[in-house]
Amino acid sequence: MIMLWFKKKNRGIQNDAQRKIPDGLWLKCDECGEIIYKKQLDRSYWTCPHCGFHFKVTSDYYIRILLDEGTFEVMDENILPKDPLKFKDRKKYVDRIEAAKKKSGLSEAVRVGIGKIDNITVSFGIMDFRFIGGSMGSVVGERLARAIERSLDMKIPLIILSASGGARMQEGILSLMQMAKTSALLAKLDDEKIPYISVLTNPTTAGVMASYASLGDIIMVEPKALLGFAGPRVIQQTIAQELPPGFQSSEFFQKHGFVDIITQRKELRKNIALMLRYLYRPADNIPSIIFSD
Amino acid sequence: MPIEFTLDFEKPIIDLQRKIEEMKSIASQDGVDLESEIMSLERKLQKLRVDIYKNLTRWQRVQVARHPRRPYTLDYLSKISQNFIEIHGDRNFRDDEAVVCGFAMIDGRKVVVIGQQKGHDATENIRRNFGMMHPEGYRKALRAMKLAEKFDLPVVIFIDTPGAYPGIGAEERGQAEAIARNILEMARLQTPIVITIIGEGASGGALGIGIADVLMMMENAWYSVISPEGCAAILWRDRAFGKQSADALRVSAPDLLELGVIDKILPEPPGGAHSDPNRAAEILKENIIAELDRLKDVPKNELVDMRIAKYRNMGIYKQA
Ligand SMILES: [Zn+2]
């Protein structure tokens, strides 16, 4: 349930929007190699103007571009990680947590709460890859469980934006159980016909992909994200052959029928809002800021 | 035909077994009366088995769980059930033989059975893909569960997999989606689900048929978020750290009981299930029957509510 990450790949794991550039003004595109003026990137939602490559951005950035301004009320920040197994490999788990907190400024790999998208109140969860690879442990599971329960209690749509390498090994079997925990509650949401839109960003894999991320009524993804169950490296070692180009990309999964909508980052807010207008009938007739009837 | 296979720590047992065999053949060939010596050695053997097996490390248990002579799903089914009839295919792509699905009677109780199946030899292992399921396997299993729900039969599941298969076809056909869907549907399945981990319980590959009202685990089985070697490869950068990783991950039955993930440990005969498959099967059968009988009168909606509540409460965190 864990995607393998190796040194070579690690470069892409940092958040590009935060990456220190020698002169601070220019950035090289990972995909096409073009040198891009940073101000230009900022204007184009951190996508490459030459090839459309979507740079990784922080959860703060997504909150800013997706939710109506100033509407996100973060909740359940009092749910915090423990070290249930006293796990230690070459490093102690507690030290990894502290390092992740420092690096990301976050208390865990997901933030949940209530916000508005195009005036519609939603239960919102957003993962951040900077926090131990966006891995899912007991806190991610519990916060998301509460997010799903808020959807159930308030009868409001659920939006979860994923970015994760999978389950968090350092919590052992308990992290696997978070797949069961979140998916079991999504069964209730489904029974109640409350819409759930799952948004996948680069990368969404393994235990997260094999649970709530794959269970949206509608699944949206940014272009050229890495998705999948098993890591490319593991697959390559298992089958002992080269993997086809574009394997496990957003486009691959759409072609094979597992993703509804590939959306440019700049269209993401509009597309979520549009789906909400189709799937959800709020009690009052809430006027749209984006669409005219 | 028994496979010649000895684990390191089993060696004293095997050596003593050989010695007893030798003495028996001497006794019968030369007519020497060695009965008391043989009996005393047999007592010693029994004690040795008990001693060695009660002190197994987690990593040694992982080896026992992978023992090629360990009983697999079909071995147990032939011992604990009657009138087994297998069903095939996911009605969509193909029949995945890494998982066996069908109907069976356990002392007169009609059930739907589902179990991951490894092979006892190379040919069967290829056919069974070493017990590693593809998406169509998870979908076949779900089909069997839906039949159970529709026709009011409980579901009995055996878990024994080194993992869901990591391959091109598996990704093309949505391995992640198949597992996720099964977890969701099993959570709300309106019929009892009794599961036993009989050997290996590797990660999502196990969880994809792993949501239960009662989850039992055989004494030497393992269940983990990732295989000890897989974890070692990532965190220790070396697969050889399997032992350290098995300890850190806490993959053994007593660990899982303590963490509240399983409900019950099924004892294995001294020397492990492979040393006495009949006894292992008896223990399995008694426990499955007890759980089926306990769950059969619970109203279906209560059963589902309790099942979802059980998983909803899993996890250990601080609340500040
Ligand atoms: Zn580019």
Mean pLDDT of chain B: 95
Number of helices, counting only DSSP H or I runs of 4 residues or more of chain A: 10
Question: How much helical structure, as a percent, in the residues of chain A?
Answer: 25-40%
CATH architecture of chain A: Alpha-Beta Complex
**Number of DSSP E strands of chain A:** 11
Task: Report what the structure shows.
The complex is a heterodimer of chains A (293) and B (320). Chain A has a single domain, classed as Alpha-Beta Complex (2-enoyl-CoA Hydratase, Chain A, domain 1), CATH 3.90.226.10. Chain A is built from ten helices and eleven strands. Chain B has 14 helices and nine strands. In chain B, strands 1, 2, 3, 4, 5, 6, 7 and 8 form an eight-stranded mixed β-sheet that branches. Chains A and B meet through β4, α5, α6, α7 and β10 of A and α7, α8, α9, α10 and α11 of B. β4 of chain A pairs antiparallel with β9 of chain B. The site of zinc ion has 8 residues of chain A, from loops.
Short description:
The complex is a heterodimer of chains A (293) and B (320). By secondary structure, chain A is of the alpha/beta class.
What descriptive keywords fit this protein?
heterodimer; A: 293 residues; 2-enoyl-CoA Hydratase, Chain A, domain 1; 18% strand; B: 320 residues; alpha/beta; eight-stranded mixed beta sheet; 14 helices; 9 strands; globular; binds zinc ion
Topology:
The complex is a heterodimer of chains A (293) and B (320).
Chain A: H1 7-10, E1 26-28, E2 35-37, H2 38-43, H3 59-66, E3 73-75, E4 79-81, H4 93-104, E5 110-117, E6 120-127, H5 138-154, E7 158-164, H6 172-191, E8 196-205, H7 206-209, E9 218-221, E10 227-228, H8 232-239, H9 250-255, E11 261-262, H10 265-279
Parallel strand pairs in A: 6-7, 7-8, 8-9, 8-10, 9-11
Antiparallel strand pairs in A: 1-2, 3-5, 5-6
Helix pairs in contact in A: 5-6
Chain B: H1 11-30, H2 35-54, H3 58-65, H4 73-80, E1 82-87, E2 99-106, E3 109-116, H5 122-128, H6 135-150, E4 155-161, H7 168-172, H8 175-187, E5 193-202, H9 203-207, E6 214-218, E7 222-224, H10 228-236, H11 242-249, H12 253-258, E8 264-266, H13 277-295, H14 300-312, E9 317-319
Parallel strand pairs in B: 3-4, 4-5, 5-6, 5-7, 6-8
Antiparallel strand pairs in B: 1-2, 2-3
Zinc ion (ZN) binds at residues 29, 31-32, 34, 48, 50-51, 53 of chain A.
